[in-house]
Write a structure and sequence with these properties.
about 15% strand; alpha+beta; about 200 residues
């Protein structure tokens, strides 16, 4: 990094938000008005639960031009690196990505009940409620669940179970955020090595 680059750390963790969003917006606008080139680095994609839209809005409202560089959201990249395809022909053909802060909303419950893959971000604390909502909607207790902690890092850990036992397993193994929860048949252990993954394609594509 060039010696003259100023670095301002505004990162967040699940339990620590040292710089509130309105202050981040103010910093971006203030520095840009000083004539500086401002780069806002984010993990994943800035528009997928990254509050990128709020920051762009603040800049545009202040008359500041913005260029957004898309990223790859952790909702897709973390399961992929852990060997979990969020969609798979013959297994799951639809996907819902949702925040798990408040548990499973109506859309997530409906998606789980339909057999779609549902990826919960920031849902570790709400896991028991997510499980209860899924089972209450008629999801089979045997529905696979995978929890990926610290994805893509040397501390990555994948915890697997089913709707029937994942809350207990997560509690006993001390699952902690940051983590991504994948609910659906694609989270089945060994899926990619099984015959299911080799379903013939009548169209050959």
């Amino acid at each position: 990094m060039p010696y003259d680059v100023e670095v301002i750390n505004v990162g967040k963790s699940p339990t620590k938000h040292p710089v509130p969003q309105h202050e981040i917006n103010r910093i971006l606008v203030s520095l840009a008005r000083e004539g500086k080139t401002v780069v806002r680095l984010k993990g994943g994609d800035p528009y997928v639960f990254g509050r990128g839209g709020e920051e762009v809005h603040a800049c545009l409202e202040a008359g500041i031009d913005v260029e957004v560089v898309p990223g790859v959201t952790s909702a897709l990249s973390v399961p992929a690196l852990a060997g979990i395809p969020v969609t798979q022909r013959g297994v799951a053909t639809s996907l819902l990505v949702t925040t798990g802060h408040a548990g499973a909303d109506a859309a997530a419950v409906a998606a789980m009940a339909s057999g779609a893959t549902v990826v919960f971000l920031m849902g570790v604390k709400a896991l028991p409620g997510i499980v209860e909502a899924a089972q209450g909607a008629g999801c089979a207790a045997t529905t696979p669940v995978a929890i990926i902690e610290n994805g893509t890092t040397s501390r990555e850990r994948v915890t697997r179970g089913t709707l029937a036992d994942i809350s207990r397993i997560a509690r006993e193994t001390g699952v902690k955020p940051p983590a991504i929860i994948v609910v659906g048949d694609v989270a089945r252990p060994g899926l990619l090595a099984s015959a299911v993954a080799a379903t013939p394609d009548p169209k050959g594509d």
